[in-house]
């Protein structure tokens, strides 16, 4: 990438989020409505619903901070690597927020066969981000981005290493 170019504002996001949502929706339809397999009741169901609600709320918060409150659009337009705020906790808060939300919805379905969807969607997100935005960011920022990657998780918000 040339020095004066910048990443697209929306990046690969819409395709990635829709892809993860489609994977979850297909799994929900197949296991809960077609095969009628894996639905749990009583205590495990209550626990899955509670965790699901917590993840939905956390996902919305992470997405909101990354998308609305972080000022990321200005950093993209100015070709400035964003490493503070929510970006000090997770490199991709907008995608992570959507992943957490989709995970929460999947858990609220109370179906144990949907649990692998969480890992599948994390894998999709990881592969897509490595092949697209992370590659672009490395080309644009070089060692600065590599150092940032060593300190901040790709998908799961966590305190700096």
UniProtKB/TrEMBL annotation:
Gene Ontology CC annotation, any one: endomembrane system
Alphabetic keyword roster: Membrane, Methyltransferase, Transferase, Transmembrane, Transmembrane helix
Keyword Ribosomal protein found: no
Highest taxon of source: Bacteria
A single GO molecular function term of this UniProt record: methyltransferase activity
Transmembrane intervals: 12-35, 42-65, 98-120
One Pfam family it belongs to: PEMT
UniProt topology in membrane: Multi-pass membrane protein
Location of the protein in the cell: Endomembrane system
Gene Ontology biological process terms from the UniProt entry: methylation
Identification of the protein by name: Protein-S-isoprenylcysteine O-methyltransferase Ste14
Origin species: Ruminococcus flavefaciens
Lineage per the UniProt record: Bacteria, Bacillati, Bacillota, Clostridia, Eubacteriales
